[in-house]
């Protein structure tokens, strides 16, 4: 099973032939943010669901008390790059509002049931990020 930098490398090199399906029934995309401190690009494989023309991902960090760095980066600079299989595009990232979160959470937890246990072990509301295609 692919993880971290190796997951990103193989996904990008194969246009998602390797890595798009991380585990059976669990699709991933590659999200590239700009570091809020470093200004450097950082790419992360994330589980997603499609929501009309948009994609939704979860900033879970396994239920840790702090948000993942990629989430902090996109809150500082919401213009991100996304790759879904061979489709590469620029997107605007935003945190789903309460209504969207209530609608999207069950769909994401259906794909990755651990999200429910991650939420149960933290006091923070785990954000869902909506990625809206720009170009």
What do you see in this structure?
The chain has helices at 4-13, 69-76, 98-111, 114-120; strands at residues 21-23, 26-34, 41-47, 49-51, 54-58, 79-84, 87-95, 128-133. It is an alpha+beta fold and 135 residues long. It has a single domain, classed as Pnp Oxidase, Chain A. A hairpin with a 2-residue loop joins strand 4 (49-51) and strand 5. The longest helix is centred in the C-terminal third of the chain and has 14 residues, at 98-111. It comes from Actinorugispora endophytica. This is Deazaflavin-dependent oxidoreductase (Nitroreductase family). Pfam families: F420H2_quin_red (PF04075). GO terms for molecular function: coenzyme F420 binding; oxidoreductase activity.
Write the layout of secondary structure elements.
Layout: H1 4-13, E1 21-23, E2 26-34, E3 41-47, E4 49-51, E5 54-58, H2 69-76, E6 79-84, E7 87-95, H3 98-111, H4 114-120, E8 128-133
Antiparallel strand pairs: 1-2, 2-3, 2-6, 4-5, 5-8, 6-7, 7-8
InterPro entries: F420H2_quin_Rdtase, Split_barrel_FMN-bd
Pfam families: F420H2_quin_red (PF04075)
GO molecular function: coenzyme F420 binding; oxidoreductase activity
């Amino acid at each position: 099973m692919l993880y971290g930098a190796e997951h990103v490398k193989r996904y990008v090199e194969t246009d998602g032939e390797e890595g798009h399906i991380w585990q059976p029934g669990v699709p991933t995309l590659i999200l590239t943010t700009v570091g809020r401190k470093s200004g450097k690009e950082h790419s992360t494989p994330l589980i997603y669901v499609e929501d009309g023309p948009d994609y939704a991902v979860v900033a879970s960090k396994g239920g840790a008390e702090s948000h993942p760095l990629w989430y902090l980066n996109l809150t500082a600079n919401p213009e991100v790059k996304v790759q879904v299989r061979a489709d590469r595009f620029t997107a605007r990232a935003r945190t789903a509002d309460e209504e969207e979160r209530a609608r999207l959470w069950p769909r994401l937890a259906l794909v990755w049931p651990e999200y429910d246990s991650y939420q149960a072990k933290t006091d923070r509301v785990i954000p869902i990020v909506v990625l809206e295609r720009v170009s």
